[in-house]
Design a protein that fits this description.
glycosyltransferase, Glycosyltransferase, globular, 56% helix, transferase, EC 2.4.-.-, 8-stranded mixed sheet
Length: 434
């Protein structure tokens, strides 16, 4: 029996309706909570807090769940493309990783011509020597360029200036590709409409067994980030074609002036694509494994840098200036993220502490209303990701402790770190690449 086609626009409005109904039910049920908190701090302030920690997160989770349930991404029309691709690796002091990364590139089952450009960005170690040695040993078409101007965007722009192929793939120096990653990501690109200029790949944690922090991040990449990417990909406006592993049309990147001078150069680049009426897709079968931060200090630097990059993009391109409805909505979600992170950090976390002493003004039984829809979203994306893994001949490793820590405590880490990133960007503090 032929399945009925549902347009992307109809999927959007179906999901919006479900999310609004969920939030409306939440508001009705929570009226006693609102009145109780209003007696203490006043009605406007009570609504400000509860909207930030319950209503809006519940609405966003309901929209996500409904979108994931009705998403049916079509298979690429061309399964084994053979168009030339240039892989750019921007590297700074990566002697420990660069050889392994190049080794995994050499094992790709891609049938087209591949050239690898390693751009050394002022390394003081053996990165260049290791890259050249790997190229010779693996008989790979590899070039090593030097870029003294510090900044990842400088390195990437140097690489693309030397690129002659129609497609360019960026890869971090500590990121390992699944053997079919390039084939799947290029297949999605060449099977897509002409106005699709970039495809983001799937990034997963490579060192998830190192400690509890990396175990939590394994679930963040596997469930949280993957779910958001699928949602954005469904509405043809993936907000970050991440530099760690994404494919771009070379001419599209050059058309908008290359990677911008920004701490979140990949975020701003992607938003510029959307502003030019291009579309950005996501390919779940194109999988790469990256080394995630193993210390809280490194984690805080990375995630605050991501938060700064989002603010950079918002300052340059306002959501209401995006030409497409889906892009307006998706970037609009990012527009309210500082408010959500602020309320979570300043009110929810202290409210949780108060709840332990019997004061349920902010955190209480009503806040648990967000939990079911969150767990449903995680179950949905887990089921989907498990199918992806089976198709790629991978398996989901057991990580129960990491999962429960992720569900119960991860946002407690994330929101304050993000708020710190917003503060850094507001005061224009010094930018650090890595």
């Amino acid at each position: 029996m032929k399945k009925r086609y549902v347009s992307v626009k109809n999927k959007f409005w179906i999901s919006q309706t479900a999310a609004i109904l969920w939030m409306s039910a939440s508001i009705l049920i929570s009226l006693p909570w609102v009145r109780e908190l209003a007696e203490i701090i006043g009605l406007p302030f009570a609504i400000f807090i509860i909207a930030g920690i319950a209503y809006i997160p519940g609405y966003l989770n309901a929209f996500l769940v409904c979108s994931l349930w009705i998403d049916r991404q079509p298979r690429p029309k061309i399964i084994s493309p053979d168009v030339p691709v240039t892989v750019i690796i921007a590297a700074r002091n990566e002697e420990r990783n660069i050889g392994t990364t190049i080794h995994y590139i050499s094992k790709q089952d891609y049938e087209g011509e591949m050239q690898v450009i390693v751009v050394d960005n002022g390394s003081t170690d053996e990165t260049v020597a290791r890259a050249k040695k790997a190229g010779v040993e693996l008989k790979l078409n590899i070039r090593v360029l030097l870029e003294e101007e510090t900044g990842k965007f400088h390195a990437l722009n140097r690489g693309i200036s030397e690129t002659n192929s129609g497609f360019v793939l960026t890869l971090d120096a500590d990121t390992l590709l699944h053997k079919s990653a390039i084939r799947h990501i290029v297949a999605r690109m060449v099977s897509s409409p002409e106005d699709v200029c970039a495809v983001a790949g799937t990034i997963l944690a490579r060192n998830s067994r190192e400690n509890l922090l990396t175990k939590m991040q394994e679930w963040d990449y596997f469930l949280g980030i993957a779910a958001i990417k699928r949602l954005q990909g469904l509405y043809q406006g993936t907000l970050v074609a991440q530099g760690a592993f994404s494919l771009y049309k070379t001419e599209a990147v050059k058309e908008i002036g290359g990677w911008p001078e920004a701490i979140g150069e990949d975020i701003v680049l992607t938003w510029r694509f959307l502003h030019r009426n291009y579309r950005v897709y996501f390919e779940p079968l194109a999988v790469a494994f990256t080394e995630v931060p193993s210390t809280f200090r490194h984690f805080a630097k990375q995630r605050s840098r991501w938060a700064r990059g989002m603010i950079e993009a918002l300052k340059e391109m306002k959501p209401w200036h995006q030409p497409v409805l889906f892009a307006k909505f998706l970037t609009g979600i990012n527009f309210i993220m500082p408010y959500l992170d602020f309320t979570y950090t300043v009110f929810w976390i202290p409210g949780l502490i108060l709840a332990f002493f019997g004061y349920f003004w902010i955190v209480g039984p009503m806040t648990l209303f967000v939990l079911p829809i969150t767990l449903i979203s995680y179950f949905s994306i887990y089921s989907y990701q498990k199918k992806v893994f089976m198709e790629l001949d991978l398996r989901v490793r057991k990580n129960t402790a990491g999962f429960f820590l992720f569900v119960l405590t991860y946002q407690i880490l994330m929101s304050p770190v993000s708020v710190w990133g917003y503060i850094q960007e507001f005061f224009r503090l010094r930018r650090i690449w890595k």
